[in-house]
Structure formats: structure tokens, C-alpha cells
Amino acid sequence: MSRQQPSFGSVCDGFDGVLHISQGDAGGASGTIFFQFMVGMLQWADQFNYMPFVHLNNFSAKVYDTQVHGQDPGRSFTMMGGMQIGNALDARDPGRCVFPGRPELKASSGLRPEKFTLNGTGVWQHYFEPISPFDPGGDPSCEALPLVTMTREHIVFGIHSQAPWAPHPWRYLMPEYILQSKIPLQDWLMEQRHHAIRTTRRYIRFTPHMEQLAACAHPRPRNSLGMHIRHADKELSRWSIPVSMFLGFAQAFVSAEDGDIFVATDSGLVLEEILQTWPSEVRERVVYQPGVQGLSRNETAAFDLGVSVHRTNTEALTDLLALSKCTYLLHGLSALSEAVFYLNPGLMERAINLEDFETRYAVDYFVDTILPRGKNVTT
To answer: Residues 162-194: pLDDT tens digits?
Structure first.
């Protein structure tokens, strides 16, 4: 007796349209494109009852590898054209900065059948599971719905810094009602994280292959300390934290706990300093992703080293997943560090941001307050 194939018919029923997530900005890397912008666009889809799907084009060049992501003939499908994403304003903003608003009909025409084409593999499928059951051209229930995508202006200005509901991994140029400069940094980040966590849980899942890579890179995550030390390409009001600032915390961890220290970094110089100058009792606990090619030796970002972009995506996302499995975390300001909390919210109370100069956490605080919170934590 033949087995009946599962049906995904009518997957678009109940939705008002479909959001094609087609790009981030031009300069963003893995943490920014796959999490900061992705979460922001998914939040828009939830607000307006649009089913999202991801198929990235080559505009976000830091995550697009022509040799890997461009080697697919693509596909065409028909849905309703004539709809676009409008602009919204917030009454709290005297500067009238716009961000993605309600879907609206284009002035020139009404809804009409339109042929859409997707080129390449879409990037996302190499690292993540599909975010929805939408299959372009695969379900008649979707053909009568409008398809929209965000413009570069929606993303670069709107999602990045002007949308009040989108996550922002640190404070940079944005309206004051979003910046909230009088609120402590940790409180400001915490509120955004809670919204991003819900969106991540609903939509973003790594492939089994990526999970396996992370398990190989960090095979003993129980009771471990993660350290994200980013040195290359830190811009927009951020600081490269000296490796020496991590040492006191690492020594305290080794004295109090028996777990490993997982180091995620984009700098070969960081690893050299740790492995050559830190005390042996600390060094012997250090683990890191083996065979990483995207390690800079100066301020050049890993994705600008000439290494395969697919390789640097994989390495960065492996580090991210491995960090999310740790029990404790030391980090700075980074979209990738923020994504760790989206994947593992429990780490928020067991982490220290060494770029939070408003608080300036001491090693004693780490020992007396942070480490006890990790007792009996299994992941």
C-alpha cells in the first residue's frame, strides 16, 4: 500500500499577503543580516498578517557567495502584483523619520497577476530551515494574494535605525524616542530582546548540519563559559575590548568551575594572545572552532579577507550556535552577540557586556552573582 504524501495545501489561507524577504543592507554580515534585519522584517510580517518567506538576492554581498548561492537556475511563479509597503511615522519623533508601514496599493495600478522570478539558491536554506511552508508557485491558495518586498530604504534606514519595533544591538544614530539615552543600556537592550526572542522562537531554526557543526566545535557545553571577542571591523560607537579584560573573568571561572571556555573571535591575534600568554591552567580549558579561515590579523573584517563567503557565514553561525549553548557569556556590542540571547534567553541573566561602560562589571560581581545563577543549568 502506497503512503500518502503530506499535503501543504492552502498554506496561505488566512493571510493578507506574502512578504518576500529578499535582502538586508550592503555591508551587514551574518549577525546583522540573518538576525537583526531578519527579525525586524519578520516582526513587520506579523504586524500586518503577511506570510514571510526568505530568498535572498546578491545585494547583501557580505553573506552572498556567488560560487555557492548563485549556482541554481532559480524559478518563476505568479502572484498578485500592484501592492507595496508604505512608510510610517511615529508621533513621538519630531524629526519625522520613516520606517516600514502598512501595505498599500501602488498609485499606478490595482492588483494584477504578475510573474516573479527568484535567482540562485536564496542563501537561507544553506544554514536554516524554511521560516514558513510557503512554496513559490507550489500552492494555488497563494496566487490570489499580493506579494511585497522591502526596498533598500525600508531596510537601511527603517529597520536598521528608525523602526521602533525592530531590534537594535547597540545605540547608534537613531531618533531619541528609540535611542532613549537616559535609560541604562542593559534595560534598553532587554526590552528589545524579549520581542526578538518571541520572533526567533517562531521562525528561525538552524539546519541539523549547522547544529552538528556547533556540537563538534563545542562538544562539552555544560557549565561552560562563552567569550565573544570581536576585534575587526568594529564601527558605529563600538570599542574593541582588549583581550586582557577577559582574563580576570576567565581565571575566576577556572578557579570556581570545571567547565570549558569557548572562544569565538574574528581575530587570529586574539587567539594567539590567549594561547601564548594566558596562564596554563586557563589555556588548557580553552576550546574554539577548529580550522577557521575567516580570522583577521588587523581591522579587516573576516568577510573581507577573500575567504569564501559561504565559509565565513558557516564559521560565524557555528560560533553563534556554540555560544548559545554555553552556561555563561562574556561579550561586547555586536549583532551576533545579541543573536545569542535570541536563541538562549536564559543567558541574559548569566552574561556580562564588557562594553557596558555605564555599569563596569567587576570580577567579584561575576563570581558572587553571575556564577551562582548557572547552577543546575543543563544548556
So the answer is: 999 999 999 999 999 999 999 999 999 999 999
Helix (H) or strand (E) holding 228: strand 225-229
Share above pLDDT 90 across residues of the chain, in percent, rounded to a whole number: 82
CA 126/CA 128 separation, integer angstroms: 6
Strand, helix or coil for residue 264: strand
Q: Residue 353: name the closest of 340, 344, 163 by CA.
A: 340
DSSP, residue by residue, 127-149: TB--SSS--TTS-HHHHTSBEEE
**DSSP-derived secondary structure for 4-72:** PPP--TTTTTT-SEEEEE----SS--HHIIIIIIHHHHHHHHHHTTEEEEE---SSSTTT--HHHHT-S
Distance between CA atoms of residues 156 and 36, nearest Å? 12
Residue 296's contacts (CB-CB under 8 Å, 6 or more residues apart) are 231, 232, 233, 266, 267, 268, 302, 305
Strand, coil or helix: what is 77? strand
CA–CA gap between residue 246 and residue 250 (Å, rounded): 6
Exposure string of 6-44, with b = 16+ CB inside 10 Å and e = fewer, is eeeeebbeebebbbbbbbbbeebbbbbbbbbbbbbbbbb
Residues 6+ apart with CB under 8 A from 208: none
Q: Are 223 and 256 within 8 A, CB to CB?
A: no
CB atoms inside a 10 Å sphere around CB 349: 10
Digit-coded pLDDT (tens) for 325-363? 999 999 999 999 999 999 999 999 999 999 998 887 899
Q: Distance of CA 229 to CAs 27, 85, 269, 276, 312, Å? A: 20, 38, 11, 16, 16
- CB atoms closer than 10 angstroms to residue 284: 11
Tell me the pLDDT tens digit for each residue of 2-52. 333 334 458 999 999 999 999 999 999 999 999 999 999 999 999 999 999
pLDDT at position 306: 67
Whole-angstrom Cα distance, residue 202 to residue 192? 16
Instruction: Provide the 3-class DSSP secondary structure of residue 89.
Output: coil
Cell of 242: 582588549
For 289-322, the pLDDT digits (tens) are 988 875 666 555 555 556 799 999 999 999 999 9
